[in-house]
Automatic annotation (TrEMBL):
Top-rank taxon: Bacteria
Organism: Siminovitchia sediminis
Name this polypeptide is given: DUF2238 domain-containing protein
Lineage of producing organism: Bacteria, Bacillati, Bacillota, Bacilli, Bacillales
Transmembrane segments: 5-22, 28-49, 56-77, 126-146
InterPro entries per the UniProt record, alphabetical: YjdF, YjdF-like
UniProt keyword annotations, A-Z: Membrane, Transmembrane, Transmembrane helix
Length: 196
């Protein structure tokens, strides 16, 4: 029964992946940047499926996260229609899909926890919580650094700006401050905000 559920999840994720590939809003370069982490993760899951099978809950979480990334890749995170509607209805300054995605990506901690419990001598104690939290934060920070590097390499080009998800969010300014150097105000993703 579990294999049927896992196959069904793979079918749904594959269908959404194919859909996301059809005329993505931001172009194919931005699409590739947005969906690459999900594709790499899914390949890892498929390679390890027979040797290290995760729980159905973990596969559901992985499927949800992949679908979120595929939808974000198709529309770009700042243009997902449902969340544009939410932005308009609640008079928000930005499309909240990016923040929703970050919130949901926190579910990956459950997958990390399962792997640590099964592959390490850790038990369900305080150290497990601390290590799961640390790994989750490290993964999130790595992704933000990759976004920043892509934007820097793209020299502020359209794909770089869209990948970074610039929507006038003050969190971007905080990121700028973290990478403070003599060229702080010349960085492409800081230009909109100006000096603090």
């Amino acid at each position: 029964m579990r294999s049927i559920i896992h196959s069904f999840l793979l079918l749904i994720v594959t269908a959404v992946f194919i859909w996301s590939l059809i005329k993505p809003t931001g172009g194919y370069l931005l699409w590739a940047l947005e969906v690459a982490p999900a594709v790499v993760g899914l390949i890892a899951v498929l390679i390890t499926y027979n040797k290290f099978r995760l729980s159905t809950l973990s596969y559901v979480i992985i499927a949800i996260l992949a679908i979120l990334m595929f939808v974000g890749g198709h529309y770009t995170y700042s243009r997902v229609p449902l969340f544009n509607w939410i932005k308009d209805v609640f008079d928000l300054k930005r499309n909240p899909y990016d923040r929703f995605g970050h919130f949901i990506k926190g579910l990956f901690a459950i997958v990390v926890r399962e792997i640590l419990l099964r592959k390490t001598p850790l038990t369900k104690e305080a150290w497990l919580v601390a290590i799961v939290t640390s790994i989750s934060l490290a993964i999130a920070a790595l992704y933000e650094i990759i976004e920043w590097l892509v934007s820097t390499i793209a020299k502020g080009g359209k794909a770089g700006k869209n990948f970074l998800g610039r929507q006038g969010d003050h969190i971007v300014l905080i990121t700028c401050i973290l990478f403070l150097d003599k060229n702080f105000f010349e960085r492409p993703f800081c230009e909109k905000h100006g000096p603090p």
